[in-house]
Amino acid sequence: MGDEKVKNDALQIIGMFQLLPRLVVFDLDYTIWPFYCQSRSKREMPSLYPQAKGILYALKEKGIDMAIASRSPTSDIANTFIDKLSLKPMFVAQEIFFTWTYKTDHFQRIHTRIGIPFNSMLFFDDEDKNIQSVSKMGVTSILVDNGVNLGALRQGLTEFSQNASRSEKNNQSWQKYSQNPNSSEKKEEIVYMSDS
Ligand SMILES: [Mg+2]
């Protein structure tokens, strides 16, 4: 499947959803490209997973911001590869540094830098520990098996819109309750403590 075909398929998938993330964050190694960049030389010409480019271009065309969160210990190689692949203009933030935490620092920095709330973000990564810790921050996080592809995109957007509509419902019922607590269908019992 060529890049253009993947991009069109991705556009079609994105078009099926009303609630979309404001930011999509990608890991690098084994998520957008099939290797650890620490084991490669800067002189090489890297290649992406076959559907990665089409997906990035489709998100860009839809006006959805994108960022990188990578724990690679060789950020110089990662940056060189991103340059060589002409991907730098695609990303509003690139956090590439090694930590012992599982990307919570990366997401905190991305959030501080661009101000998008965690629950408006969608994240793709191939490591379960990153997925677990970042999803606890409220980010919809998708474990990829064989790099980012159309299936992962569809799954990500599906889970994102489920999470978003769930939190919207919670918000609405909370607003309803706080505006008029007595008439709420979700009556809460008030227990009066006797002080005697
Ligand atoms: Mg990875």
TrEMBL record:
Q: Looking at the record, which segments are called Disordered? A: 164-196
Q: Which domain of life is it from?
A: Eukaryota
Q: Which CDD domains match?
A: HAD_MDP-1_like (cd07501)
Compositionally biased, Polar residues: which spans? 164-183
Show the stretches that span the lipid bilayer: none
The record's listing under SUPFAM superfamilies reads:
HAD-like
Stretch forming the signal peptide: none
Any one Gene Ontology molecular-function term assigned to this protein's record: acid phosphatase activity
List, alphabetically, the InterPro entries matched. HAD-like_sf (IPR036412), HAD_sf (IPR023214), HAD_SF_ppase_IIIC (IPR010033), MDP-1_euk (IPR035679), MDP_1_eu_arc (IPR010036)
What residue ranges carry the coiled-coil annotation? none
Pfam families the UniProt entry points to: Acid_PPase
Q: What is this protein called?
A: Magnesium-dependent phosphatase 1
